[in-house]
UniProtKB/TrEMBL annotation:
Domain of life: Bacteria
Species of origin: Phreatobacter aquaticus
Name of the featured protein: Globin
Residues spanning the membrane: none
Key words of the record: Heme, Iron, Metal-binding, Transport
Residues reported in the UniProt entry to bind heme: 127
């Protein structure tokens, strides 16, 4: 279950449009990873195809935003730092990832209340992933 609580008792997952909303967000995120110059370092730690990464982010965000726990059902506990430890993640990678996420969020989610709830937690999560 998501730790994100909204004033109207709907989950962020519901407020952004369920699976379709999360899919729009993750699809835009990975397009931006290929387009934004500031995402170059982040893109470099990913494989040439981003298809699998996009699917896993969709599954993770689905549960994290209060929807179906797809990632846990398919892959087990997230253990994000452990899963990403094979990649050297420094500040340039974190900042690139955040640039993509923030822009994708602002383009696909039109809910200022959710901005204030979700974006600080995403920023903290991204910085938690830094391992170098």
């Amino acid at each position: 279950m998501s730790a994100l609580q909204t004033a109207d008792h709907r989950t962020p997952y519901e407020r952004i449009g369920g699976a379709d909303g999360v899919r729009r967000l993750t699809a835009r995120f990975y397009v931006l990873m290929d387009e934004l110059p500031e995402a170059k370092a982040c893109r470099a730690v990913h494989p040439p195809s981003l298809v699998q990464a996009e699917q896993k982010l969709f599954e993770y965000l689905s549960g994290w935003l209060g929807g179906p726990p797809l990632f846990v059902e398919r892959h087990g506990a997230p253990m994000l730092r452990r899963r990403h430890f094979r990649a050297s993640i420094g500040l340039p990678e974190v900042e690139g990832w955040l640039a993509c996420f923030t822009q994708a969020w602002r383009e696909t989610v039109r809910d200022a209340d959710l901005d204030a709830l979700v974006l600080p937690k995403i920023e903290a999560l991204a910085h938690h992933m830094q391992n170098s």
